[in-house]
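QA checklist item 7 of 12: single-chain prediction sanity check.
[x] sequence parsed
[x] length recorded as 110
[x] structure emitted
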Amino acid sequence: MMFRLRALLVDPYRRTVEPVEGQLSLKQVHETIGCTCITSFTWEGCFCLCNDEGLFHPIPRTYFSGFQEVAGRVLIYGPPRGGHETPCTKAVDRIRPLLTFEGDVSHLPG
């Protein structure tokens, strides 16, 4: 199975949000996120994939505004209509202010 990919990659290891494009197999999605078990969630109207076991391990976390903390890398796609086949149309500069990387106080209020 191949996934058409136009997403944003949230990487708490590097503290970056970057657009990614291409075609990935499920195995490559696992490698991109850096895990063996993925789960999905919806945030800001987007379909997201993350490490399902991330919170059980001491890996960097990202706090998603109005949602919760997520451990490890996250792929953000478009609206949840078939998930991975829906391209992300949100810009990095719109998403980045809604994220706080673990240890980063520059985005916290007050």
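[x] summary fact logged: The first strand starts at residue 2 and ends at 11.
[ ] second reviewer sign-off
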